[in-house]
Amino acid sequence: MLRAAIAVTFTLGARQAGAEIPIVQGGGWELYTDGRVGGFISYTKGDGFPLTTPTQTPRGGGIDHNAAVQISDPNQPDVQPTIDTMRIRSGFVSNILGIGLRRQLSEQTKLSVYLQLWSDIETESQRKYLPMPIDVRQGYVRLEGPAGEVTVGRQLTLYSRGAVEIDYKYGHGYALGFPGNISSNGPAAGHIGTGVMAPGFAAGVVYATPKLAGLQLTAGLFDPVVLQGAWDRTKFVRPEAELTYDTELGSNARIHVFTNGVWQRVYKQNQPDELFETVLGVGYGARLEVGPVHLGVAGHYGKGLGLYYALETSEAAYDDQYRLRTTDGYYAQSQFILGDFDLNVGAGISRVYELPTDGVADMNGHRNSVIQSQLGISGVLVYHFSQVVHVAVDYLRANYKWHLGEKQNVNFFNGGMTVVW
User: Fold this and answer.
1) CA-CA distance, 400 to 212, in Å (whole number)?
2) 88-119 burial code (b ≥16 CB/10 A, e <16)
3) In whole angstroms, what is the distance from residue 46 CA to residue 279 CA?
4) Does domain 2-420 have CATH number 2.60.40.10?
5) Which sequence spans correspond to the domains of the chain?
6) Quick one: which of 247, 242, 256 has its CA closest to 207?
7) Given this model, what pLDDT does residue 18 score?
8) Interatomic CA distance for residues 284 and 259, integer angstroms
9) 99: which residues sit within 8 A by CB, 6+ positions away?
10) Cα distance between residue 197 and residue 204, in whole Å
């Protein structure tokens, strides 16, 4: 579930993405394709998941205690395990094949149909005999005209897309960052989980207004999400919205400001409607570009969000009694364009706040230690060999802390190549 939610991509400028390739025209329609293919060597080294003791159990966050990646000494059961593993895998964005159709219905009205297929290069659970699934990540129809645009189908959701766009444009668009599920398949996560939340993809109906003096409002209704094992019933679709503002600051500078939000009510299976919880979140941030220097900042705050994506099924989103936790995050990303090279440096932190009952000992003296924070510091060097070939090396240091003192520090070293069209 995590890997499906954190995989995101965007239509960006020429420096960040390849151009669409027309295939054929006929009957008023144009058929085109876009996409990317790439791969990375990824090395993970650091602490394993903190130990569970007779009096204390770490809950949520961190690099999970997966036997496939952890190294422990049976003669030293009280020593925290380590992680030391190398993979060849997809980057922040996996292999993609996009296919689109479009036509002009009138001088001012355009109709588009688009399908986007994703596939990782690494197999599930490191078993090379398993088939590689194809994920139909997007599939929608869009109508654009003077009154704005309407998109219907499976598409990128709105909450937190501005923050992930910063990571993609100025950070890990051609890199990897946090690998996500280390011992299974990806794609990877960049800074998601350390200051950034993923928007994900969902079935929805979205309307975007025309831009007015740089302002644009995008609002959508999406298929609702259940919190598995906690709040397993929904009634209404999930509203999300984003307000953006764009303006030029002279001949060589521009700024993009955004704020977005999500709201959804969740219910108990076989329980009356009066028993419910409300998940909500707000996000905000800005991008500033002044010549070759780019800077992005973002933040989020909410209830029941989790660490990686809104409405996350995890102990970071709710406790054993299914009460929703409050979380927030902050992220800053810089990019310096030096000829054919980009140097990207970023840092972010996601935090989980305790509920009144967290950390309280039960009748046996045992306490649960909830994840407190996940801090990530990253550096990326990208060489643009051409408009379509991009080579990158990157490093991310992740520091995880729990409310009762446990810690986990992990280093990620990655390098690879991406071809886009």
Assistant:
1) 43
2) ebbbbbbbbbbbbebeeeeeeeebbbbbbbbb
3) 34
4) no
5) 2-420
6) 242
7) 57
8) 4
9) 31, 32, 33, 114, 115, 116, 117
10) 19
Q: What's at 194, amino acid-wise?
A: T
C-alpha triplet 202, 230, 222: angle, nearest 5°? 20
- List, in sequence order, every residue forming a beta bridge with 57; answer none if it has no partner: 368
Taking residue 221's Cβ as centre, other Cβ atoms within 10 Å add up to 15
- Close Cβ partners of 408 (under 8 Å, ≥ 6 residues apart): 46, 47, 48, 49, 50, 62, 63, 80, 399, 400
Q: What is the pTM of this model?
A: 0.94
- Residues 160-176: tens digit of each pLDDT: 999 999 999 999 999 99
> Are 292 and 342 in contact, with CB atoms under 8 Å apart?
no
How far is residue 358's CA from residue 59's CA, in Å, rounded to a whole number?
A: 10
What per-residue confidence (pLDDT) applies to 64? 78
- Backbone torsions φ then ψ of 134, nearest 5 degrees: -105, 125
Candidates 33, 39, 403; CA nearest to 188 is 39
**CA–CA separation, 160 and 310 (whole Å):** 9
Amino acid type, 55: T
Cβ pair 100, 23 in contact under 8 A: no
HSE of 116 in the Cβ direction (CA atoms, 13 Å)? Answer: 22
d(CA 156, CA 164): 11
The residue written with tokens 């991008």 in the block is 287
Write the CB contacts of 399 (distance below 8 Å, at least 6 apart in sequence): 373, 374, 375, 376, 407, 408, 409
Q: Which residues on adjacent β-strands are paired with residue 367?
A: 56
- CA angle, corner 322, sides to 319 and 327, nearest 5? 55
pLDDT tens for 3-47 read: 544 555 444 433 445 578 999 999 999 999 999 999 999 999 999
CB 373 within 8 A of CB 400: yes
